[in-house]
Amino acid sequence: MALSLEIQKVFTEISERVKSVDLHPIEPWILTSLYSGTVCILNYQSQAIVKTFKVTDSPVRSAKFVARKNWVVAASDDKFIRVYNYDTMEKVAEFEAHTDFIRFVVVHPTLPYLLSSSDDKLIKVWDWEKGWICTKVFEEHQHYVMQVAFNPVEVNTFASASLDGTIKVWNLESPAPIFTLEGHSKGVNSVDYFINGDKLYLLSGSDDYTVKVCNPACNSAFLIRMCVSNVLIRPLTNPVYTQNRQVWDYETRSCVQTLEGHEHNVTAVCVHPEFPIIITCSEDQTIRLWNANTYGLESKLNYGLERVWAVGCIRGSNQAVFGCDKGTIMVKVNSSSGLDIGDLQTKEEE
User: Fold this and answer.
1) H or E segment and range at residue 215
2) Over the stretch 307-331, which tens digit does the pLDDT of each residue have?
3) What is the reported pLDDT for 195?
4) Cβ pair 5, 15 in contact under 8 A
5) Which of 225, 241, 254, 341 is surrounded by the most beta carbons within 10 Å?
């Protein structure tokens, strides 16, 4: 069936460079972290700034809501993680987490864990119920670890993307990776899981400008290194490799498609939770929408905010938010019913 999509711009906030964005699961809030060291909560309904936290003089590269605790977690180039109560603006915790810039943090969906990744090549697990102690360290990467993402099906496994050109899949209970995906010709900036039908995929974005959907097990250009472990997990079904973005099938480990088009580094990737759309962002200043079923390019968006660094979506919402050099923009995706998803069409509405 066909699905017709219309992209509407609903909110813009001009600011200094935005390095990360997150959406609150209940409130109409966008969390942005700025290169200037500030974290902001924006209300996209009232078009107003709700709260502003001056975290540090260093860039804050990643910030996340912890909605079940009413917290904001911010990670910065000064190597510290800071936690704030977003109702009272009280600082809940502050600790030096790494020995180099912190690139990314992600919150476990059910457990009291925060995962952080850094230019020190390490991934760490922090347990806030134990006073924010570090309970695990993962250290197989050979270059900066740019991003981490939890598996939505097996929530005790996660994937990491590194400038060493690899994606590694880990289990929280083992210090060694379960397997390593190789195939990008340059560093990997971003990684995310998505489910399409009954299959689990990995999506990755790289400095080599392209997107690939592959099965590394069937293609000599791609390699999966399996690691011996006492943990049993399912492999990828339809891995997609991307030079800018890659989609990996989590079960069959097969290469499906290469997505080409970006003209600079791919900085962020995700699949919209409500639509079969792969969203990719790049330093070429564009946002591209790809059909998650056919892998065809559906739309190329440029809102004039220069380089695009981050994307955020949440289940149950038809919105997507982007962080750019010159601010934040939120768009709304509207769809017509009764059309074929395989014949996906999009248009931008100014």
Assistant:
1) strand 211-216
2) 999 999 999 999 999 999 999 999 9
3) 81
4) no
5) 241
SS3 of 68, please? helix
Q: What are phi and psi of 229, to 5 degrees?
A: -155, 160
> Domains plus CATH for the chain?
9-217+252-335 (2.130.10.10)
pTM: 0.87
- Bridge partners, 34 (sequence order): 18
What 3-state class would DSSP assign to 257? strand
Residue 11, strand partner residues = 330
Is 69 in a helix, a strand, or coil?
helix
Neighbouring C-beta atoms of residue 52, cutoff 10 Å: 14
3-state secondary structure 100-138: CCEEEEEECCCCCEEEEEECCCCEEEEEHHHCCEEEEEE
Q: Whole-angstrom Cα distance, residue 269 to residue 292?
A: 12
Strand 308-312's sheet: what is its strand order? 2-14, 327-349, 319-324, 308-312
Euclidean distance between CA atoms 332 and 348, whole angstroms: 10
Which stretches of the chain drop beneath a pLDDT of 70? 1-3, 210-257, 336-350
Please report the pLDDT score of residue 231 as a whole number.
Answer: 28
Taking the C-alpha atoms of residue 210 and residue 188, their distance in angstroms, rounded to an integer, is 11
Residue with tokens 């700034």: 49
Calpha distance 47→13 (Å, rounded): 8
pLDDT number for residue 82: 98
Residue among 254, 240, 233 at smallest CA distance from 212? 240
Tell me if 81 sits within 8 A of 87, measured CB to CB: no
Give the three-class secondary structure for 251. Answer: coil
Q: Output the CA angle 197-267-70, nearest 5 degrees.
A: 75
